[in-house]
Design brief:
alpha/beta, TIM Barrel, 39% helix
Length: 309
């Protein structure tokens, strides 16, 4: 039987946040110029095939200014969508936890101290999580909730190598365990339709997240952005992309195997319109989500149905 109330078929982030904080919560993306070890040679060069550094620059008047300035401009923009909303302060650019603790701590504390900020999110790789930084995030989580958003993409080492990720599935598992031991909420980032990724890979990814007890997941379709290593491969016809219907079907099947306690933060992904090359359908996020919901309804299924069975 469907465990979700009010006709829902998966654990929606917006519903969970409103229940948790009693109000809508909007994200303000912050930039700390942290750099990426997969670009600067510490782990690799060129970055992940699909990644564009410029796509991570917040759409704000002062995206390279002091944290307080970025936060205030982001809150002003959020207010235009939902007055009196709570704020999720999201440090997204580069690999945040690769920065030394002495550089990272003042920025995180500055954001966390703002009275409108209800929780903090940190984006990172699984192989740059030193214990002293995890200890810092654990201490901060005693003041307000802290999400650690870790890129996995898929639970397959061969596919990770093809993406030029330069980390392993074991790296992710170790990072998630150490973070959970410190009371942090772990959010996994996934791509569901990378070329060569099959149903078995997606089911193994769901099984891994279930075993690790992650608290949330951000699911993305593969998209091609300008000036990424993926662009010339796509232009040569080497990178097949899913149609919207194909993606909706595989996203629905993935959700069936995902623990219903895991909150779904995103079901689709897109880059800035000026940088987005393909698939163009991904720019209509509302339509994609509608397609996935319709697929779940058509099959009369829901998140965790196959896992529970």
């Amino acid at each position: 039987m469907n465990p979700f109330p009010d006709g829902e078929r998966y654990s929606r982030l917006s519903t969970g946040l409103r229940r948790r904080f009693g109000k809508p919560v909007r994200t303000v993306t912050l930039r700390g110029n942290f750099g990426c070890p997969n670009r600067d040679g510490r782990k690799g060069h060129g970055g992940c095939l699909f990644c564009s550094e410029s796509a991570l620059v917040p759409r704000a008047p002062d995206p390279f200014g002091p944290i307080c300035s970025q936060l205030e401009s982001g809150i002003a923009a959020a207010e235009r969508r939902a007055r009196e909303c709570g704020i999720l302060a999201y440090f997204q650019d580069g690999t945040v936890t690769a920065a030394p603790r002495e550089r990272l701590e003042p920025m995180l504390r500055e954001a966390l101290a703002h009275p409108r900020v209800l929780l903090l999110a940190i984006g990172t790789r699984p192989d740059f999580l030193p214990d002293d930084v995890l200890d810092l995030l654990s201490a901060l989580s005693k003041e307000k909730p802290v999400w650690l958003e870790i890129g996995l993409q898929v639970a397959s080492d061969p596919l990770l190598a093809r993406m030029n990720r330069n980390h392993s599935v074991a790296d992710f598992a170790d990072a998630a365990r150490r973070a959970r031991e410190r009371g942090l909420e772990v959010i996994a980032h996934l791509i569901l339709d990378f070329p060569g990724e099959d149903e078995g890979d997606r089911l193994e990814t769901a099984a891994l997240l279930n075993r690790l007890g992650v608290t949330g997941v951000k699911v993305h379709n593969l998209h091609v952005l300008k000036d990424t290593p993926l662009e010339p491969m796509w232009r040569r016809g080497e990178i097949p992309l899913s149609s919207m219907d194909e993606y909706a079907a595989l996203a629905g099947r993935f959700l069936e195997y995902l623990d219903p306690a895991i909150v779904v933060h995103r079901l689709t992904g897109e880059g800035p319109a000026g940088q987005m090359l393909a698939p163009r359908w991904a720019l209509d996020k509302g339509r994609v989500i509608h397609k996935i919901r319709a697929e779940l309804e058509r099959r009369d299924t829901w998140q965790g149905r196959m896992r529970a069975g």
